[in-house]
Amino acid sequence: MIVFRLASILRDFNMTQMELCKRTKIRPATINGMYHGKTKRVNVVNLDKICRALDCTTEDILEYIPDEEYEEFFKGRI
C-alpha cells in the first residue's frame, strides 16, 4: 500500500493545508484528500508542485508499506 505522509510533513513545516494550496495553486479538496490519505490517484503535476513548495522529494511525501503491515496497523481504526 502506498500512503501519503503529507500530514506529518506539513506539521514539520508548521504549515496549514490552506497555505500549501496557496503556494501550489492546487484545489483545497485535492490537498485535503492527500492530507487525510483518501486520494487513490495522484496527478504528477500536483506532486511536482508540492515537492517544489516544500523543497522535498516524492519519497518524503509517499511511503510504501507492505499490505500485511498496513492492515495490522489500521486494524480496527477504519
The description of the largest β-sheet is:
2 strands, antiparallel
Radius of gyration (CA) equals: 13 Å
How would you classify the helix and strand content by structural class? mainly alpha
Question: Which band does the percent of strand residues land in?
Answer: 5-15%
N- to C-terminal separation?
Answer: 15 Å
Fraction of residues in H or I helices: 55-70%
Helix/strand order = EHHHHHEH
Give the mean pLDDT.
90
The beta-strand count equals: 2
Lateral strand order in the biggest sheet:
1-2
Number of helices: 6
Which segments are poorly predicted (pLDDT under 50) over 5 or more consecutive residues?
A: none
Shape: elongated
Write the layout of secondary structure elements.
Elements: E1 2-4, H1 6-12, H2 17-24, H3 28-35, H4 44-54, H5 58-61, E2 62-64, H6 67-74
Antiparallel strand pairs: 1-2
